[in-house]
Structure formats: structure tokens, C-alpha cells
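#structure-requests
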Amino acid sequence: MSSTPMTKAPVTHPISPVRLEADYEPALSRWLWLVKWLLAIPHYFLLAFLWIAYFLISVVALFAILFTGRYPLHLFEFNVGVLRWTWRVEYYAYGSLGTDRYPPFSLDDDPGYPARLDVVYPEQLSRGLVLVKWWLLVLPQLLVAAFFSGGYRINGGLAGLLTFYAGVCLLFRGYYPRGMFDLNLGLHRWVMRVIAYGTLLTDVYPPYRLDPGEREPTS
């Protein structure tokens, strides 16, 4: 009697509507990261006002979704732009130290910049979920995000610690360790998914899954 070997079906994951990617640049300046806190001040100043607008728009969007089931497109694009701008700045500065290219002052997508973010626009959102996902359903994920990067921030926690070690490696060894980079990107990817869900940009619950590396998983 012959037995047929069992084969496991390949594991597939749903594609996230939140797409965070970055290009690995191993050879970076040894010392520039020491002054990026100063160079990034204009961005931090503008982002402080943009994030105030982000949360006010999220409140407006809550009522729009509650009554219409849709996130107003122009408001959606603005808030995604704020996330995009934030990610570029944190990738340049102390969220990752992943590039020495100064980030553009723009809400728009910049395919030529080494850090990119986008969120697929949802044609329809749940009217019921909008009442509970931003404070109740997202709570377990916020606890994870707080450990990874300080909650709704993306430059603290474990990711911030990895970034500090990356800076030390750059200073003394002149390169960014690839494994450290991949893990750092995975942490930021998880946190951005949580932010997008908690601020009503999507109904897709963030998976409890770390997807490290430059690119989002395709399946």
C-alpha cells in the first residue's frame, strides 16, 4: 500500500489597503544623522499643524461615514497626504534614518523618493463600525503599536531603539545593517496600518503579522 505525501497549501495573506514601502540604501553618511533633528525642524513645525487638521478632518469624516457610508474623497486624500509626508520625514530622520535625501514639502505622492505610502480609497465603509473601531476595536492594536513605536507616533518604542542602533552602526561602521532595516520597516508598516484603521481610512482590521522588508507582501 503506497502513501501519497501530503503537501501543504501555500500560505497567503490578504493584501493590505495601506501600502508602506522604502528603498534600502546601505551606504549613508556616517555623521549626517547626528544633525537631522535640526534639518527636519521645518517639517516637524508644519506637520504639527497638519496633524491638527488630520484629526479635525477625521471627526468630520466620522459623521460623513455615519450618514453616507463614504469617506469624502478630498478629505481622504488630504489625510493620506499627511501620513505620506510624515512617513517620508520619519524615514529620513529618527523613525528609520533610511535615507540622506531630504524629504519634499508635499502631500502628494513622489514615486522618486525612497520612502512611499499610499492607502487605497474605500468606495464604501461600514456605518456601524465607524462608531466603535476608532476607540474600542483598535485598542488591542494600539497596545502593540505603543510597544513598537510609541502608539500613534512612529519614531519611538522598539523602532526608535533600532534606529538608534542603526545610527551607531553608520557612525562606526559606515553602513546600515540589512536585517535591522527590514525589521524597522516591518514595525512601521504595522503601525501605519493601525493608524489608518483607527482614524477611519479603512475597515480592514490590521493583521497581527509583521511584514518586514522593503516591499509590501503581494499575497
